[in-house]
Automatic annotation (TrEMBL), chains A, B, C, D:
Its main location: membrane. Keywords: Ion channel, Ion transport, Membrane, Potassium, Potassium channel, Potassium transport, Transmembrane, Transmembrane helix, Transport. It is found in: Membrane. PANTHER family: ENDOSOMAL/LYSOSOMAL POTASSIUM CHANNEL TMEM175, ENDOSOMAL_LYSOSOMAL PROTON CHANNEL TMEM175. This is DUF1211 domain-containing protein. It catalyses: K(+)(in) = K(+)(out). InterPro entries: TMEM175-like (IPR010617). It is a multi-pass membrane protein. Belongs to the TMEM175 family. One of its GO terms (molecular function) is potassium channel activity. The chain crosses the membrane at residues 12-32, 52-69, 81-104, 116-137, 158-174. GO terms for cellular component: membrane.
């Protein structure tokens, strides 16, 4: 259980870099789907809209995970190599989100792909919950002055997204559009 | 409204990383347009010139946004998650600029694309203005000792580029080359 | 032999960035190998499994090198430009690991490629050992209070992976699957 | 002329990130040139050698520029936005080096390309010299206690590479292989 400041900073820094690269690489998927002579102003916007829509959604999803990582790490004061390993597991999920999103983008109305995307989100969310649970258990790596109530609230908040996505996998066996709509519930619950 | 130093540092750091990745990825668009036997010295330079021209312009545009981000954040001392959200919105615009630029590069003489590029710049500029307005309003997140006059000057400066680009959208309905020339006005006004 | 804090921070930071970029770029290799109508849920998971398997393994390998870099640099307190040069050599190995891995992925049952991959790992491991040996020799760049015993333990630990991979090159001349299995020995010895 | 620590740190950080991304992206050029059945161990190494050779050289070139940036910035204590602009110009050169190198790689025996590569190196070297000259002139942005003699030595050292590359452009008009060999002179002079 190390307390060295630089060590913790490097972990946070490394995570930030992986988040930043993943989120910026999303722009590589923006492709000009224009015909050879895109002369009419309106048509350019209409043609580019779906491109940007998926870019914006993915950016917001990874951005929210970054904010959440930022938020939870504010309470973490020490580290051990188990925390580092869990954190790398979380980053592995984050870095693969652009792929899962582009898959959903291309095959959005197929049940298998919707289930796959939801599974990715479940695993990512569980990783975050695990990270927090490990750090907070008996104040293992967090600040002593954090109240038990607050810790529990943070745990609950971490568990909402994976729970909703797990539920949506069940819904997807009936209707995949309904499953996608259920994802909106996360926004409603978290706000 | 948090005051923790590490929290603000991570936001600045994350932004820097996104800027750095976006600006460096511009180089991926450099493509050797050479024929099989580029023997003559002069012709190599002539063929590579347009490649480099668009690279240099995009690099300068993103570089200027980074300088501006650097400049405005020097006055920001605290953060809340609204600021983080606006900042992520700004980064989303920045990360998509290489795409907008390459679009302009390929279809530069089409009015729709010129309008699209100008719209991207308007949104990016407004995001920056919003970030500053939010932070500076009633000294919400900035240093108390900043004079009201200076705050207003910084707000005005942030609003010039989106205003010019918005004007150029109107000009583009008449003539898209004229619209592009009007963008040079930003350099004149800001210097 | 410089002691300036910022100088050492930049070296660590630069290394972290190279690690983070290399590990995140692994996700670019994730390709949707799906047919046009991936309707059945199970088949999507089955088809994506090999993609993810190689992604996860490569992520863990680079992640372990990062943890190890993090661990060894905690003891390094000063730097000189020889250390910087060795560190850049190590980063050169790290940045090329995704290529070596994708090669192994594609031609995994060919002896030449297995030998090539093992050689890459030997060179990377030797670089790390060299870095540590250079820094630790006569307490050149490390903390004085580190016991000689601990230094030796760290040296031994750094030498295990290259030794195992070197051994697997010999094994590969007989059987390349056996060679690959021998790599698992590293996990056993290090845990 | 600002003295704020965070401001200077961000400039250094942003530069490090651009260097790190440029140097890591070099690995994207590593391509498996293997035939369908690379069974013989020796042939795999022989086929991959030229790939790695150009990767290693480019990595060392950018690595040396990073070391040099690291070295010169140790003496810079303040910044103004002219320094920031010159630094962005230098980064623009650095980020385009992988392209210039891959060009040299593909068309290495054509005089025009050799001249182009040497010109890139001249511009990059001059940018670095300009950065240093601007910062050091009348101790504008550097530490006061630096001796004039040391400043001059650092200036001379910065000017050697662009001078050699400029000379090689003249040599290339006669023989491009001789020009390439002359680049080795830099290593000899700097060591």
């Amino acid at each position: 259980m190390k307390r060295d400041k630089l060590g913790l900073d490097r972990i946070v820094f490394f995570s930030d870099a992986v988040f930043a690269i993943s989120i910026t690489l999303l722009a590589l998927d923006l492709q000009p789907p224009l015909g050879p002579q895109p002369n009419r102003t309106a048509s350019v916007f209409v043609e580019l809209l779906p491109e940007y829509q998926s870019y914006v959604i993915s950016f917001i999803v990874i951005g929210l995970y970054w904010i959440s990582h930022h938020h939870y790490f504010r309470f973490i004061r020490r580290y051990d190599y188990t925390l580092v390993a869990i954190n790398i597991g979380l980053l592995m999920c984050i870095a693969s989100l652009p792929f899962a999103t582009s898959l959903l983008d291309t095959y959005g109305n197929h049940r298998g792909v919707v289930t796959f995307y939801a599974s990715c989100m479940v695993v990512t969310g569980l990783m975050k919950t695990l990270l927090w649970q490990y750090a907070a258990h008996n104040f293992r790596l967090i600040h002593r002055r954090l109240s038990r109530q607050r810790i529990r609230r943070l745990t609950r908040k971490a568990m909402i997204p994976p729970a909703v996505f797990a539920g949506s996998i069940a819904i997807a066996t009936v209707n995949s559009d309904l499953a996608k709509m259920s994802w909106g519930a996360i926004a409603l619950v978290l706000l």
